[in-house]
Amino acid sequence: MENAIMAMAEVLRDKRKALGLTQEQVANYLGITTPAVNKWEKGLSCPDLTLLPILARLLKTDPNTLLGFQENLTDREITLFLNDVAQYMKNGNYLQTFSVAMEKVREYPQCAGLQHSVAMVLEGGLIMTELPDEDKERCRAQIAKLYERVAQCDDLMLANSARYMLASKSIQQRNYDKAQELLDQIPKKGIPDKRTLQAELLAKQGKTAEAEAILERMALNSLQETLMTVVKLIPLLTADGKSEQAEQLAGASRTECEAFGLWQYSAYLAQMQLAVSSRDIKESIRLIAAMLRAAETPWDISACPLFCHQLRKENAENMGQDFLPPLLSELESNPEYAFLREEPEFQKLLAEYREKIRSRH
To answer: How many independent structural domains does the chain possess?
Structure first.
């Protein structure tokens, strides 16, 4: 209540000064004393409710603004408040801090961002504090209610994050049906990524093969993303004169591919990019030839430990056959390889594989 009175005092003072009015002029307009207006602006008292519409018209605003009412806090306001909460928690009693935070939530009942942030901060603090079990359970129950409110809000990112937290709690409580229901409400692709939690739930239910399949796919996707990131990074490092760093990354990329049994074609990508970025004609042609041979070679998927539970696509082992035509077109048309096109050995290599493609058709 005290905060609300001070907020109103500040609004009154700022609006009056912006219009160039004195406290006496405001008092005369309302038919009250100047000391009364002075007390309002110092936060010592509040205007009578019957005066609010008249005062709002005088100050060219609305009663809600005068009362300092706003439905939501800004992101910055939430951050500043959470900083205060963290400091209270560090210096004082957890239950007092909990009370302060929940009072703020009651002050802004529609602010999902505040509710979500408060829930996370209070939950983190609860883990680190020592309280009787009864107090801890009471706090956990109120925190869970905050997440439940956020899970129903219109902000999908906040709602999905809250559902993720509730699903995690449901798994801990062995309420697996509820956990699955919540996870089903979170999109397959997006933030938060529910796959790790889904794998945990399946493992708790004894469905280890399904859990392993999810984690394998996540690891495989992560590896492939890392490889492609390195390939894109190498030309930048080369142009920046960081050739030694580029060489280390190219070598690490090949080692990673071989260690996890990935397609041999992928193992050459970073080193080929390094050679092309360095305009090393001989090494570029050698690595491109190796890549073309690798593209023809069936991938022994069974050698990849990250494919144990993955569904095999029909003819996946021979995917290079379909990959060769676009690869050759890239080598023939991309300006990146222009420095090679006058080289007889490069021309011979392209002609050889073009002939192989024609002979298959």
So the answer is: 3
Can you say whether the dihedral through the CA atoms of 290, 291, 297, 299 is positive or negative? positive
CA 141 – CA 145 distance, rounded (Å): 6
Q: Which of 163, 72, 164, 157 is nearest to 114 (CA)?
A: 72
Residue 79 is classified by DSSP as H
Question: What are 66's two structure tokens?
Answer: 């005068």
- Which residue, among 299, 298, 297, 281, has the nearest Cα to 349 in the 3D structure? 281
- Taking CA atoms, 354 is separated from 80, 133, 341, in Å, by 64, 74, 15
39 vs 324: CA distance, rounded Å? 83
299 and 233 assigned to the same domain? yes
Determine phi and psi for 311, rounding to 5 degrees. -70, 130
Peptide bond into 325 cis (omega under 30): no
- Residues 158-186: tens digit of each pLDDT: 999 999 999 999 999 999 999 999 999 99
Give the pLDDT confidence of 250-278 residue by residue, as tens digits. 999 999 998 998 888 899 999 999 999 99
How many alpha carbons lie under 13 Å from residue 300 in its C-beta half-sphere?
5
pTM of this structure? 0.70
Last residue of a domain, one of 208, 233, 251: 208
Mean pLDDT in residue range 107-125: 91
What integer pLDDT is reported at residue 200 of this predicted model? Answer: 96
Residue 139 is part of which domain span?
75-208
Task: Say whether pLDDT at 333 is over 70.
Answer: yes
Nearest 5°: CA angle at 179, between 176 and 180? 90
